[in-house]
Amino acid sequence: MTHEDAIRLFAKTLRNLEHWMDKAAEYAKAKSFEVDVLAQSRLAPDQYPFVRQVQAACDQAKYAAAYLGGKPAPSHPDTEQTFAELRARVEKCLAFIESVSAKDFSGAEERKVAPPWLGGKWLRGDDYLLHVAIPNFFFHATTAYAILRHNGVQLGKMDYIGSFPTQEG
Amino acid sequence: MTHEDAIRLFAKTLRNLEHWMDKAAEYAKAKSFEVDVLAQSRLAPDQYPFVRQVQAACDQAKYAAAYLGGKPAPSHPDTEQTFAELRARVEKCLAFIESVSAKDFSGAEERKVAPPWLGGKWLRGDDYLLHVAIPNFFFHATTAYAILRHNGVQLGKMDYIGSFPTQEG
After folding, report:
1. A93 to chain B, closest Cα gap in Å
2. CB-based burial of residue B46 (10 Å sphere; 0-12 exposed, 13-18 middle, 19+ buried)?
3. What is the ipTM of this complex?
């Protein structure tokens, strides 16, 4: 499994998340409430609401693509409040991570990743992907899904996973 | 990132989950309730409770190690009801996945993975890891965490992530 594979998986999951937001919008319409109420919903009073979970999932994908691909990360300020704005954020994130090519990820395993929050320490590219990017990305994506699910949106595991490349014969 | 790396990440996260259960037990004691109440807690009436999320996380790790390592998966029936039983389940799972060696994972990328639920179709080993094992494992681990968090257990992101191998200099 290459670093590019992991970034493509993040992209696929962000597209699945757009589909969860579609289902949330349908549910809001059927129940006659404003879908943006869900943007501020959360599972615990001291945990991030939906809007912040989506922003964080985007950032995990963006920084993984940037650090592992050796590209500067574009700035995406956390200003979104509505589902429409969150969709635009996801699209901006996808445009960036899909601009990082297979060639950019060459040598990512051993690349020195030193995000500011490590305070001068660093991680090997492989360790950053494994110990930071993958668990954090799926943490925020799953929590976003769980917030919608907790509020009654009709989602099932296949909405979470999306399609996968089965083979026959 | 190798297939073995991914299985080791699942093992690390299952050990983190044991730590979340420790914190849940402390919280239950402080609030004078029976911790096993949390085993049946869930985020939505038609979503799995904590006990089933833990069993599913274990199974995702177990089947990934078995399919990708070319080993038969041991049977672990879903009979657990209590935190004590869930800890034993996690330990059984860890003992199995840690018995699969780096050598066993050699060639896992191209191994044909045909779980019964694919009804005769199959996935390349790399695709199974990427599209099934990783997202599903973290789905169930994160949902287990979220159920505890929703019920007031004092958990933070570092409990979720655990340790990681930073470098200096």
Report:
1. 19
2. exposed
3. 0.97
